[in-house]
Amino acid sequence: MDETEARRDLAAALRWACRLDMHEGVANHFSLALDDEGQRFLMNPAGKYWSRIKASDLILLDARETPEGIGARVDPTAWAIHGALHRAHPHARCVIHLHPPYATALAALKDPTLPPIDQTTMRFFNRVSIDMGFDGMGLGDEAERLAGALGNRQVMMMAQHGVLTTGRNVAEALDLIYYYERGARTYITALQTGRPLNIAPAEVAEKTAEQWAEYPEGPELHLAAIREVLDAEAPEYAH
Predict the structure, then answer these.
(1) 127 with 154: CB under 8 angstroms?
(2) Alpha-carbon distance 26 to 4, whole Å?
(3) What is the dihedral of CA 179, 213, 220, 74, to 10 degrees?
(4) Per-residue pLDDT, 69
(5) pLDDT lower than 50: segments of the chain
(6) How many angstroms separate the CA atoms of 231 and 235, rounded?
């Protein structure tokens, strides 16, 4: 993977998440592995607001080596969670962890499952790991436990915490978390009506999920469109 373009993709994703109000102050992190082993990865630095992130701001870490500057340059929970995930899942090249409004509201419910009530929510039918074992801020043993809880899925709902997606590249992980948050928004909004939900039959939900997976180049087109906007409006992200 070309590091220059990898940095630009990740910086664009961070900027876009901020524009969509999916950030939480300077918390939450995105990471992207650069090597074939999936262990050397880029991550946004501690304390940098996402609306000002540039490609050159991203720090290069190794999941096998505790970095210098934890606390000042590297967020402790970010290093713990993303390091553990890259060690355990080298195929998961990009890891995005957020506390966006609607997915986090869903994570606060006794049952944080996203039911198949529309085309978007059906994308995630039977494709989300649900972690109900929250035990603190994601340091040490908690980070390792989270890495195990993901299993073979690309999306994990972290009860009482937030949501996490993984992908073969930035485009895939970003597209997943964007649509998951959209689906959560639809579900929470539907619940607010107080009226019965129209939950799709399992066979329809599965068929739709498979169609989503086969949709041609959707994530790549999504990220390319985002970068086109940023190239025009905030070109410094790529520097």
Answers:
(1) yes
(2) 24
(3) 60
(4) 79
(5) none
(6) 4
Task: Identify the pLDDT of residue 140.
Answer: 75
CB 94 within 8 A of CB 167: yes
Task: Name the residue with tokens 């809880």.
Answer: 149
List, in sequence order, every residue forming a beta bridge with 167; answer none if it has no partner. Answer: 94
Residues 6+ apart with CB under 8 A from 52: none
Kindly write down the DSSP assignment for every residue of the chain, as one continuous string: --HHHHHHHHHHHHHHHHHTT--BTTB-EEEEE-STTS-EEEEPPTT--GGG--GGGPEEEETTSPPS-BTTTB-HHHHHHHHHHHHH-TT--EEEEE--HHHHHHHTSSS------SHHHHTTTT-EEEE----SSS-THHHHHHHHHHTT-SEEEETTTEEEEEESSHHHHHHHHHHHHHHHHHHHHHHHTTSPP-PPPHHHHHHHHHHHHHSTTHHHHHHHHHHHHHHHH-GGGG-
pTM to 2 decimal places:
0.96
Residue with tokens 């060690």: 87
Structure tokens at 237: 């992200």
The residue among 230, 232, 225 whose CA lies nearest residue 52 is 230
At residue 162, the pLDDT reads 96
Q: Give yes or no for a contact between 51 and 22, defined as CB atoms under 8 angstroms apart.
A: no
Backbone angles phi, psi at 162, to 5 degrees: 175, -145
Determine how many CB atoms are found less than 10 A away from the CB of residue 167.
21
Q: Are 74 and 59 in contact (CB under 8 A)?
A: yes
